[in-house]
Amino acid sequence: MSLPGALGVIPARFDSSRFPGKPLALILGKPMIRWVWEGARRAKTIDRLVVATDDRRILEAVEAFGGEAVMTSPGHPSGTDRVAEVAARFEARIVLNIQGDEPLIEGSTLDRLVEVLQDPGLPAASVMAKEADLSLIGDENVVKVVADEFGNALYFSRAAIPFGASGFFYRHIGIYGYQREFLFRFRALPVSRLEKAERLEQLRILECGQRISMVAIDQPVLSVDTPQDIIGVERFLEEKGHG
Fold it and tell me: Is residue 1 part of a domain?
């Protein structure tokens, strides 16, 4: 029997060293987790969308706007572990890890991830966006990625890569798609050397010799890492008529 299509999971934890309560931060009057949920719901290929949280305040906020949320262990070291716990509860061949700090996520981006993962030989896929502001290439909070001519990731770094970039570079957007069984294998692997050095979990996949196919998007990148980032997101939304 074939498994259903994609399961979308939005990991959302309340505690954050830089921005406590971030999923519930208001953006034009709506909690950020709702913006992420509504963007993801526009994907045509997601059969089920679930918020995975360790805090009842987030669960209740999601249920209040009609979303589905589940409680997960508070001891998970990463969002991937939280996603894997939820994936173990539901049948789905493809599992999407949709970061809860991407309020401008487009459903079409998630559809493209699911599309490339129709190849069962591809273990994982992620997203990158062309960035023309070269002043950001040295910012360690902006994760850079370089890919080969077939769109497979060669490396991710907080450092400036590629050296001597001109015109643009690709910044990584922390949204992932996995083949279900690979997600469980990935979670079980020990933390790798480069992952530890860069503080980038996805490097564990490359270090164990597996591929990550990168989907390039043209949408604006306005992730929320600090309370100040809310201002930029609201300004963008107001310019688009969401005020």
Answer: no
Contact 41, 66 (CB under 8 A): no
Name the domain count of the chain.
Answer: 1
Indicate whether this model's pTM tops 0.90.
Answer: yes
Cα gap 229→241, rounded to integer Å: 19
**Residue bearing tokens 């992932």:** 176
142 sits in which H/E element: none
Domain housing 132: 6-239
Q: What is the pLDDT of residues 79-93, one digit of tens each?
A: 899 999 999 999 899
Task: Give me the long-range contacts of 83-89 (CB less than 8 A, separation at least 24).
Answer: 83/9, 83/11, 83/52, 83/183, 84/183, 84/184, 84/187, 85/52, 86/7, 86/9, 86/50, 86/52, 87/7, 87/9, 87/180, 87/183, 87/184, 88/184
What CATH number is attached to the domain comprising 133? 3.90.550.10
Which residue's structure tokens are 């890492």?
225
Does residue 144 fall inside a structural domain?
A: yes
Q: What CA–CA distances, in Å, run from 123 to 33, 144, 155, 185, 210?
A: 27, 21, 16, 10, 7
Closest to 32 in 3D by CA, of 236, 243, 238, 230: 230
DSSP three-state, residue 165: coil
Look-up: residue for tokens 């688009």?
240
pLDDT in tens, 17-41: 678 899 999 999 999 999 999 999 9
Distance between CA atoms of residues 110 and 113, nearest Å: 5
d(CA 157, CA 142): 9
On whether residue 108 sits in a domain, the answer given is yes
Q: Is residue 26 part of a domain?
A: yes
Contact status, residue 83 vs residue 52, Cβ threshold 8 Å = yes
